[in-house]
Amino acid sequence: MASNEFPGWHGTTIIGVRRGDEVVIAGDGQVSLGQTVIKGTARKVRRISPGGYDVVCGFAGSTADAFTLLERLEAKLEATPGQLARASVELAKDWRTDKYLQKLEAMLIVTDGDVLLVITGAGDVLEPEHDVAAIGSGGNFALAAARGLMETDRDAEEIARTAMAIASDICVYTNGNLTVEKISK
Description:
185 residues; 12 strands
C-alpha cells in the first residue's frame, strides 16, 4: 500500500468526569486501521506517580506519540511535584514550539483529583466546563451523554461507564472494553 493510501488509525474514546471529590477517567480498548479492528483490548488510561503524587492520564491518537507525551508530562511533574496545571502548561508550551513534538498526533486528559485538564498539540490546556471532558473518535458522543447524565444522582464512575456505553453503541471506532481509573482528593 502506498503511503498516500494509508487509511489512518482510528479508535479511542476517552472521558473524564468529576463528581464531588472524585474524578474518573475511562477509555475504551479499540484500535482500528481503516475499517479493520486491529486490537480491542488496548489500555489507553494510565496511572502515573511522579514525585509520589498520583496522576491519571488518558490518551487518544497515535500510541507512540501519546507515550512520548506521557513521558514528557511525567518529567515535568517530577520537576514540579504536585503541580499538574503548571506541568501541563509547560508540556503544552514545549509541544507547541518544539519541532519534533509538533509532529506528534495525540491528545491527553489528565487529573490529579484536584484539576481535570485536556492538553492538545495546539498549545491548549483546557479545564472543561460542566466537569466533563472527552477526546477521541467517539469523544463528542461520550461528552454529550455524560453532560446529560450529570443531571442525575449517579456518581462519576457510573456516569463515565454509561457515557462510554452510549458512545460505543454509536461510534464504530469505540468498543465497550473499558479501562477505568478513579482518583479522589
